[in-house]
Each structure stands twice: as structure tokens, then as C-alpha cells.
Amino acid sequence: MAIISLEYYSEVLGMNREVKVIYPEQNKVENFTGKEIPVLYLLHGMSGNENSWINRSGIDRLIRKTNLAIVMPSTDLGFYINTTYGMNYFDAIALELPKVIHNFFPNLSTKREKNFIAGLSMGGYGAFRLALGTNTFSYAASLSGVLTFNGMEEHFDDNPAYWGGLFGTMENFKGSENEILPLAARFEGERPKLYAWCGKQDLLYSGNEYVANELKKMNYDLTYETADGIHEWYYWTRKIETVFEWLPINYIKEERAF
């Protein structure tokens, strides 16, 4: 596969942005046609950027025989939303970036059934927020995602400048388009298939349990898994392979060297 660094000007954000793209290579992928290539948008967590998945997971090696392109953008610490301070990261990724990517890589599919999204921690929230806030992605996966702020209200009080800059007050956040469960309840159209995983020793475990149960009550097609684990890359690098196996692609798994 090829790893490509793409710098482009975002009209939405009013600045240059960089995105990493993993592009499948014809001589590595069996029955490669080079047309309508499936695309996974893969999102980083807090403190990460567009390089995190490549640097921390070895993901490029994991998919080198699979016909899948991976697009890795960055929203800094912006939680993949349109913030109250005017940085519209949601619009930049949900609406603008797919057009930018297709302009540079016209062989990547624009069909909903071949566009997927996944992420870890903040990016797990982002994956569900983007999938449930658009009709762009047919599959969405969260690894240790921040899927609810129930029980985390003190964060808004401890750092009001940051959290308020993102979501406003907790009162503004509750029931808004940025809260996953109300967003899921209002979703219209063909629902995306969802996957969530969280370690049992993770600080976000109880929140994931709650959201998973509520999504199942809404009859979402959700695959929810747990196991022993904390909020750490060791687990995410392994569970991303489970996501590949879950996606409707012909994932060719390779033996790990680590």
C-alpha cells in the first residue's frame, strides 16, 4: 500500500489541513480492479492527530493485502463537532473532506455502502456523531468511545473554557445534536450498522454499557463487545482488526509480528 500525506486548504475552517491516506496497491491485493475502492475514515483520540494510527498501531501493515483505503484526518481537540467558537470541524469532515478526497482519489467510492467510519476515544464519539448526523456512512465503529457525558458533568465545571468552547453549557449539550442518544433517536433514513468495544477497566466502560443498551432498545443493529482492558493503544491496535473483520470487505488478515 502507499501512505500519502495530503495538505489541502479547508474552506470550512479557513486554514490548511493535513490528512493521511493509506491507498491499496494493485500488486498486493488479490483481484484488484482499482475502481470503487471502499473507504474507511479513521479518527484519532484526544492528544492525537492524523499520524496517530500509523505511528501507534502499524495499521498500514495490517491491511496491505486488503482492498481498502483509509483516510485519517485531524480535528485537534475539537471532538469532530461544530464548536461554539466557530471552528466547524463536523462540516469540515462530514461534508468537505469526502469531496476533497474524491477529487484527489477518484477511484475511491462515493457510495454509502462503501464508506465507513471508526475511531478511538474522542474519535469513537466522532465516528458515531458523524454517522448519525449524516447519511454518508453505512458502518460506524467506536473503540473506547466517549459515547456519553453522563457522570462526567464535573469536566464542564473543571474546565469551562475548553468544554464550553466545544459544547456550551451542559444544559446546551443535553438533548442537542451533539449528544449521541438523542441524535440516534432522531435519525431518519437508512440506519448505519454500529460496532462498539470498551475494556472493563476503562474509565468509559459504564458509559459504553449504558449507551449500548439504549441503542439496542432503539433497535439499532449494534455489535457490542467488552473484555478486560484499559484506555490504551495495546487494545485498540487489536480491536481495529475486529473492526476490519466486521466491515463488509474482504479483509485478508496477516499474522502479527508483535
From TrEMBL:
SUPFAM superfamilies: alpha/beta-Hydrolases. Gene3D superfamilies: alpha/beta hydrolase. Signal peptide: none annotated. It holds the Pfam family Esterase. GO terms for molecular function: acyltransferase activity, transferring groups other than amino-acyl groups. InterPro entries: AB_hydrolase_fold, Esterase-like, Mycobacterial_A85_antigen. This is Esterase family protein.
